[in-house]
Amino acid sequence: MHKKTVHEIRDLLRRKEISSVELTKIALERINSIDDRLGAFISVYGEQALEAAKDVDRKIASGEELPDLAGIPTALKDNMNMKGTKTTCASRMLENFVSPYDAGVTERLKENGAVIIGKTNMDEFAMGSSNETSYFKKVRNPYDLERVPGGSSGGSAAAVASGEVYYSLGSDTGGSIRQPAAMCGVVGLKPTYGRVSRYGLVAFASSLDQIGPFTKDVEDCAIVLNAISGKDERDSTSADVKVEDFTKYLNRDIRGMRIGMPVEFFGEGISEDVRKIIIDAVEVFKSQGAEVKEISLPMSRYALEVYYILASSEASSNLARFDGIRYGYRAESYSDAVDIYTKSRSQGFGDEVKRRIMLGTYALSAGYYDAYYKKALQIRTLIINEFKEAYKNVDIILSPTSPTTAFKLGEKINDPLSMYLSDIYTVPVNIAGIPAISIPAGLSNGLPVGLQLMGNYFEEGTLLKAAHAFERATEHHRIRPSI
Amino acid sequence: MSVSIKDVEYVAKLARLEFSEKEKVKFTEELNSILKYVEKLSEVDTSGVEPAIGAYPMYNALREDEISPSLDREEILKNAPDKQDGYFKVPKVID
Amino acid sequence: MDFEVIIGLEVHAELSTNTKIYCGCTTEFGGEQNTHCCPVCLGLPGSLPVLNKKVVDYAIKAGLALNCDINRLTHMARKNYFYPDTPKNYQITQDETPLCRDGYIEIETEGGLKKIGIQRIHIEEDAGKNVHMEDSSYVDYNRAGVPLIEIVSKPDMRSPKEARMYLEKLKAILQYTGVSDVKMEEGSLRCDANISIRPEGSNEFGTKVEVKNMNSFRAVERALEYEAKRQMEAYERGEKIIQETRRWDEGRGETVTMRSKEEAHDYRYFPEPDMIYLSVDDEWIESIRKSLPELPDARRRRYINEFGLPEYDSEILTSSKKLADFFEECVNEGGRPKEISNWIMGEILRTLKDRSMEIEDIKFAPGHLVKLVSLVDKGTISGTIAKKVFKDMFETGEDPEKIVKEKGLVQVSDEGAIRELINKVLDENPQSVADFKAGKTKAMGFIVGQVMKASKGKANPQIVNKILTEELNKR
Ligand SMILES: [Zn+2]
């Protein structure tokens, strides 16, 4: 059962071949049996989930017509607020923080009858690409427990790949959905900036953060995206763009679709096995009638640098509120108010978070703003313009999601720069604010490789159309890890 | 541009973080290597380029001046590390 | 040596909106601590700000009333600093793009009308409140997120008196537009000053000193007088004036160095990424311009032209919208402008000041004042009695006619009765009569006084004079 997709489960529920309570019990049992090895969950709310499941079952029994997601177990990355439960951001700082409110996406899922089973592990405050910066525990890759699941939404990716839940939500600031989706062999979508409400998502970098789904296949991705998209009046940056039914992009012909392959995304740093699998994927698109051409996005070479300035600067300010006064960790001993701040923050945050706060504070400080922050915003303009220009000639842009497959635990944790490089293909998308999806493209040495498709603003439909065509022509999305 | 231990101390103070001497050395090195990396940005000619505040320009998210309910005080203070008589409590602050 | 004093003011005014600037919590003053808060104004993780449209309306209204240009495209910014009353440890304010800029206020100086420039007006959020006790501080976030405008003047004032006049005019204008309560006591109007001196004739600016903690206009003037003197004396002793922030100590009547902050201010301003551009078009601005009421300067000119009031009266009456409204209602009810003005500037303002009350605290209606004046005009009561009636009316808010009737204060003009009273007084004071007859005219005054006293002030003085002369001549 745990290997099934959301659409398969939905049909079983509708045909009353299984109940939501049964599904929930299966999910809880699965978590119980594998999560001490996997480490995907920070908290599990079994009783609450069963209550929600019972509620859905009652509605099914009474013949009510229910949304697609009704009764299906899911999980939220632990940086999304759910009233009455902990939102830890995998940090000692928020170890005991109980949220008094629901995030926009939490409300949406509840309205859709979702059974939220728990909160997933992540890199501390979403800062990391391997999930090793979690204060609580590491998440392991379901394909190889000695390897990382990617990050920062590693828990959400591993939970779906291993079948603990049928879909999950993650957040993506520089690749934090797509990179772990690639490494765990699932579908991960980062929607257009503004497509999904950020209200209640603990901000890492406000101008880059976006919530999106992890699913086993593209159809599921469309279903979850339907549920979470749309304007939220409580998020000023949420876009007032009409939400279509994304499932209408499934099973469509892609003949004549123009696909661009940017040379900069296939340069040095990409591992040979990844390159090979991506080239094979390109052939699949060609055989479906798509027109593939080489393009160039020279400004994207600066995206990672721009990202580290912008994301760190915004983070340095976003994380200032964690000071031990109103909520969160407070140091045990301190001399005065300033000391509460300094000690609580120094003890409450891990090294990677401190590193980014330091970089961001420096980049914004007197005398450096123009050289770093402003410069980065200007290059952001150039990157945006370059993508806009590119989309005059292509419908989607194709690349590997990450230059390598999942690396070993501990391999990069002491080398921040090499860790940062694993986001090199995903970061340009966040800088531009465009949507991108990572889909399974096959295994290399038993490890999943992700294919990234990038679309123009609010063109998630085009991405789903292409991704679904690829899925129909291949079997990669049916591969499941043996855990 | 490169940073010294003194710079790291200044930035740490701004960010309300403190480090041991050993950590200061480590953070100085790491910051320098990241700064050296991002130095590449200075290659790009950005004269006359408008900074992109946000992914794409958006205008006017405004709310009407209508009261919505506040949280109960119990909820407001629930996560407070120290509180008294409905207040958040901190060591005496000198203005 | 002669010095020139250079003053610039930064005024924070709380806007009279129903809700906070970025969330729907009430701005009501005086709620129980930490009851007007939500995830947004508490800065809970994940919460996001959404701008209150009324705040923009009010800030534009203030900007137009202060002759500013309105910035068509602005973006909020974060000002980063750690302080327990600041929930997010940054304030959402405006930096490079204030909503309004380049305005001015006109003040009436001895040298004539003077324009004081306004550099900028921007919108921002207020902080919470720290209550300091012996060992600890207690934080209440009810005020956190209450909308403010900060009005920054150009360094155009040349004396503490000009600074006070600027503040009075600014307060009047904000009050006229209705955007703020402008109550310094409740903290809805706050003022910080920058002051420097330079030798007369010099073109360079001296070192600026910031002065804080002035809780009234009078305090601003006193603090600046003190600070100007302190700087001049330091200059003459050859001391260097240091750039610093000083606090006005009202009790000691001096400014003192504030405990210097541990680090130089490095606020790390950057565009608020949780918010988007604010674009204001002509239509929006024009609709606000149309809603502007007549402002103090225009009203003052009208009082001079339309009512023939002296410059002085017009200035005082229009200094507060409520005072001017009261005056005009009296005139609308048929009061003669100059007479009403005399009453307001005399009895009314004096009584209000004695009791530290505001015009809006007055219990009686404008019509009552008009009636009181007409009672004097008609001879029903004397001017002296009118002042007594006014006191009663002020206390109780009752109709003056009713007071006059109930207390039997109607003036006696009955010649027979007055004659009888006069003869009685003359009979009782033969010496005074004799003195008068001997040419001592002063005695007349004494006799009149005695007659008035005997009538309890109610005798019509003109008739008393007439009959007394007749009766004295008979004797
Ligand atoms: Zn609030």
From TrEMBL, chain A:
Write down the superkingdom of origin: Bacteria
Gene3D superfamilies linked to this entry: Amidase signature (AS) domain
- Please name the top-level EC class of this enzyme: ligase
Query: Does the record carry GTP-binding as a key word?
Result: no
**Active site, renumbered:** K77 (charge relay system), S152 (charge relay system), S176 (acyl-ester intermediate)
Give its E.C. classification number: 6.3.5.7
Read off the InterPro entries from this record.
Answer: Amidase (IPR000120), Amidase_CS (IPR020556), Amidase_dom (IPR023631), AS_sf (IPR036928), GatA (IPR004412)
The Amidase domain covers which part of the protein? 22-464
| UniProt KW keywords | ATP-binding, Ligase, Nucleotide-binding, Protein biosynthesis, Transferase
One annotated GO molecular function:
glutaminyl-tRNA synthase (glutamine-hydrolyzing) activity
Name the catalysed reactions. L-glutamyl-tRNA(Gln) + L-glutamine + ATP + H2O = L-glutaminyl-tRNA(Gln) + L-glutamate + ADP + phosphate + H(+)
An example GO BP is: translation
Question: Which SUPFAM superfamilies does the UniProt entry name for this protein?
Answer: Amidase signature (AS) enzymes
Any one of the GO CC terms: glutamyl-tRNA(Gln) amidotransferase complex
* A Pfam family hit: Amidase
The record's similarity note reads:
Belongs to the amidase family. GatA subfamily.
Q: Which HAMAP family match?
A: GatA (MF_00120)
Q: What does this protein do?
A: Allows the formation of correctly charged Gln-tRNA(Gln) through the transamidation of misacylated Glu-tRNA(Gln) in organisms which lack glutaminyl-tRNA synthetase. The reaction takes place in the presence of glutamine and ATP through an activated gamma-phospho-Glu-tRNA(Gln).
- Assembly and binders: Heterotrimer of A, B and C subunits.
Q: What is this protein called?
A: Glutamyl-tRNA(Gln) amidotransferase subunit A
* Name of the gene encoding the protein in the UniProt record: gatA
Automatic annotation (TrEMBL), chain B:
InterPro entries for the chain:
Asp/Glu-ADT_sf_sub_c, GatC
Task: Please name the GO terms that the record assigns under molecular function.
Answer: asparaginyl-tRNA synthase (glutamine-hydrolyzing) activity; ATP binding; glutaminyl-tRNA synthase (glutamine-hydrolyzing) activity; transferase activity
Function in brief: Allows the formation of correctly charged Asn-tRNA(Asn) or Gln-tRNA(Gln) through the transamidation of misacylated Asp-tRNA(Asn) or Glu-tRNA(Gln) in organisms which lack either or both of asparaginyl-tRNA or glutaminyl-tRNA synthetases. The reaction takes place in the presence of glutamine and ATP through an activated phospho-Asp-tRNA(Asn) or phospho-Glu-tRNA(Gln).
Q: Name one GO biological process term.
A: glutaminyl-tRNAGln biosynthesis via transamidation
EC numbers for this chain = 6.3.5.-
Please give the superkingdom of this protein's source.
Bacteria
- Supply the enzyme class, top level: ligase
The name this protein carries in UniProt is: Aspartyl/glutamyl-tRNA(Asn/Gln) amidotransferase subunit C
Q: Is Ion transport included in the keywords of this UniProt record?
A: no
- Recorded name of the encoding gene: gatC
Q: How does it assemble?
A: Heterotrimer of A, B and C subunits.
**Catalytic activity field:** L-glutamyl-tRNA(Gln) + L-glutamine + ATP + H2O = L-glutaminyl-tRNA(Gln) + L-glutamate + ADP + phosphate + H(+); L-aspartyl-tRNA(Asn) + L-glutamine + ATP + H2O = L-asparaginyl-tRNA(Asn) + L-glutamate + ADP + phosphate + 2 H(+)
What Gene3D superfamilies does this protein's entry cite?
A: Glu-tRNAGln amidotransferase C subunit, N-terminal domain (1.10.20.60)
Database matches in PANTHER family: GLUTAMYL-TRNA(GLN) AMIDOTRANSFERASE SUBUNIT C, MITOCHONDRIAL (PTHR15004)
Q: Is the DNA-binding keyword given for this protein? A: no
UniProtKB/TrEMBL annotation, chain C:
The Gene Ontology biological process terms listed for this entry are:
glutaminyl-tRNAGln biosynthesis via transamidation; translation
One Pfam family name from the record?
GatB_Yqey
This enzyme catalyses: L-aspartyl-tRNA(Asn) + L-glutamine + ATP + H2O = L-asparaginyl-tRNA(Asn) + L-glutamate + ADP + phosphate + 2 H(+); L-glutamyl-tRNA(Gln) + L-glutamine + ATP + H2O = L-glutaminyl-tRNA(Gln) + L-glutamate + ADP + phosphate + H(+)
**UniProt keyword annotation of Nucleotide-binding present:** yes
Could you tell me which Gene3D superfamilies the record lists for this protein?
A: 1.10.10.410, GatB domain, N-terminal subdomain
Give the Gene Ontology MF terms in alphabetical order.
asparaginyl-tRNA synthase (glutamine-hydrolyzing) activity; ATP binding; glutaminyl-tRNA synthase (glutamine-hydrolyzing) activity; transferase activity
SUPFAM superfamilies from the UniProt entry: GatB/YqeY motif (SSF89095), Glutamine synthetase/guanido kinase (SSF55931)
- Top-rank lineage group of the source organism: Bacteria
> Which keywords, in A-to-Z order, does the entry hold?
ATP-binding, Ligase, Nucleotide-binding, Protein biosynthesis, Transferase
InterPro entries on file: Asn/Gln-tRNA_amidoTrfase_suB/E (IPR017959), Asn/Gln-tRNA_Trfase_suB/E_cat (IPR006075), Asn/Gln_amidotransferase (IPR018027), Asn/Gln_tRNA_amidoTrase-B-like (IPR003789), GatB (IPR004413), GatB_C_1 (IPR042114), GatB_Yqey_C_2 (IPR023168), Gln-tRNA_amidoTrfase_suB_CS (IPR017958)
Instruction: Quote the EC number.
Output: 6.3.5.-
The record places domain Asn/Gln amidotransferase at 325-472
Q: How does it assemble?
A: Heterotrimer of A, B and C subunits.
Please give the function described in this protein's UniProt entry. Answer: Allows the formation of correctly charged Asn-tRNA(Asn) or Gln-tRNA(Gln) through the transamidation of misacylated Asp-tRNA(Asn) or Glu-tRNA(Gln) in organisms which lack either or both of asparaginyl-tRNA or glutaminyl-tRNA synthetases. The reaction takes place in the presence of glutamine and ATP through an activated phospho-Asp-tRNA(Asn) or phospho-Glu-tRNA(Gln).
| Recorded family membership | Belongs to the GatB/GatE family. GatB subfamily.
Protein name as annotated = Aspartyl/glutamyl-tRNA(Asn/Gln) amidotransferase subunit B
Q: Which organism is this protein's natural source?
A: Fonticella tunisiensis
Origin organism lineage: Bacteria, Bacillati, Bacillota, Clostridia, Eubacteriales
